[in-house]
Design a protein that fits this description.
- The chain is of the alpha/beta class and 364 residues long.
- Helices cover 26% and strands 27% of the residues.
- Helix 8 links the parallel strand 15 (274-282) and strand 16 (306-309).
- The longest helix has 20 residues, at 160-179.
- It comes from Aspergillus uvarum CBS 121591.
- Belongs to the zinc-containing alcohol dehydrogenase family.
- Its EC number is 1.1.1.1.
Amino acid sequence: MTIHMNPIPKQQRAAVRSGSGDTATTSIETIDVDLPGPGEILVRITWTGFCGSDKSLLQDEWAGFGVTMKPESKGVAGHEGVGVVVAIGEGMESRWSIGDRAGIKWIAKTCGECEFCLSGVDEVNCLRQINSGFTTPGTFQEYCVADGRYTSKIPDGVADEEAGPIMCGGVTAYVACKRANVKAGQWIVLPGAGGGLGHLAIQYARAMGMRVIAIDGGDDKRELCHKLGAEVFIDFLTTEDIAAEIRKITTYGAHGVIVTAATKTVYSTAPTYLRPNGTLVAVGLPADPTVLAGAPPMLLSLRRLNIVGTLTGTLKDVEEALDFTARDVVHPVLVKGKLEDLNSWVEKMKKGQLAGRAVLRVAN
């Protein structure tokens, strides 16, 4: 039996993809509202983040890797949605109440039975996971059916529009900081520090006691990075040898570097920023399949470097990332729009015109 808030409309607005490749667009269409089945809830989306991964999926940028939106998504992307629970499917009555705030993530559902799920700390590698906006309809719609077990509860003190970006960008930056294995008082380098992921990484790194070297271009990015807590800013537009500058600051090189800027240049030079035993964390996902994250074997061996990757985080990681915002420690810098503006925001993102994290108003 489904418990629900009256009235739930039979139809809703959604941004639905049409076309393919870099000319694909979305249009606001009227589609049916599905009710939740057993183990599911229905969330009325108030705000959704617009992530770089949404752009990549909408425009088939990862087709070279065999990653394209599946028919099961019904052309509805989005994976940073937050809203209010308006219907509760059978079996979820003890976990959710009508009116609770809920967050929908890239990982919409895991199997709960495989080795990765049962480990309790590694369900992001579940091979049978369902992904929002990829293999199931995402959050670019007014009402979204979600798995009641894997949807995140939003704590008091975190606004919906702030919680949205934390569902993906925030938790990705937070987990990257953990995977960098940089201790309090040690140096971490953040290329692309003024971007959507980078500006969050600055804040999480500072909250974890790291000393931050931010790399980006221009006075506006310099001002933002220092405001968010970066100890040092290196302007790549005016600095000839970034690795030498980092060694001048740190003596031996940084303990860790998190690459959020998905460019060939950054991935090829980032290992040279590290000291012996340092760790490079690959986060930015280039559309070009020839881009590699690594270094020549001689450099890797002589400096005993670590190269690791990360993508989003576990259910527990999301809870921890949200807690930083609830405690007024980490806040995404937001640029706000409406669901109807999605096409123009895709173009803005392609041109690098979006500062911080983009969020779209879905329902009032």
